[in-house]
Design goal:
The chain has about 160 residues and is mostly helical. It is built from 8 helices and 2 strands, in the order ααβααααααβ. It has a two-stranded parallel sheet with strand order 1-2. Helix 2 packs across helix 7, helix 3 packs across helix 4 and helix 3 crosses helix 7. It is elongated. The chain starts with 16 loop residues before the first helix and ends in a 15-residue tail after the last strand.
């Protein structure tokens, strides 16, 4: 049996019931589950990259700090941590000193994220997940690896190097 063009490795993956139900909608005579999943992933990350909100460096670092304690994956739309990240940031700002640690307005950041589209919220969660996969420990390089969309700010605070998320 020949391999499709572009296939580098085969992997055994497990899908949630909701993912399987979605995949089953594409089932027809010539269906190829691997091609459907590959195409969906490529499109998903392309959309997220295009829709990634622009935030200040310290806001991204605060998000990555908070997201590190959240579940990284979801098994359904209802349990997606992207939908509730804003509440975790608001709580960390009120209780854990997030605003002071990263020199940001944590409540403002939480409300900003809450008002974003679901696609933008997903982009944020994916950036935070990739941040923790980045090699090294330089925050600027880690944010670049994660493809964070950073807004330039005059007199940007460089205190982030002194903090560990």
């Amino acid at each position: 049996m020949g391999k499709s063009k572009g296939i580098k490795k085969s992997r055994c993956i497990y899908l949630s019931e909701q993912a399987l139900e979605t995949l089953e909608q594409f089932k027809h005579e010539s269906w190829n589950a691997s091609a459907i999943i590959s195409s969906a992933l490529i499109r998903y990350y392309s959309v997220l990259e295009r829709e990634c909100p622009q935030l200040k460096k310290n806001e991204w670092l605060a998000i990555c700090d908070v997201a590190n304690a959240l579940p990284k994956h979801t098994d359904s739309r209802q349990h997606d941590p992207a939908r509730f990240l804003w509440a975790s940031i608001e709580g960390a700002a009120e209780v854990d000193g997030l605003s002071e640690k990263w020199e940001i307005d944590g409540k403002e950041l939480a409300y900003k994220i809450k008002a974003m589209s679901y696609v933008q919220q997903c982009a944020i969660i994916e950036v935070a997940s990739l941040f923790w996969c980045a090699p090294g420990s330089d925050y600027s390089e880690m944010l670049a690896f994660a493809k964070a969309n950073i807004t330039e700010q005059v007199g940007q605070i460089n205190a982030a190097k002194d903090h560990q998320p």
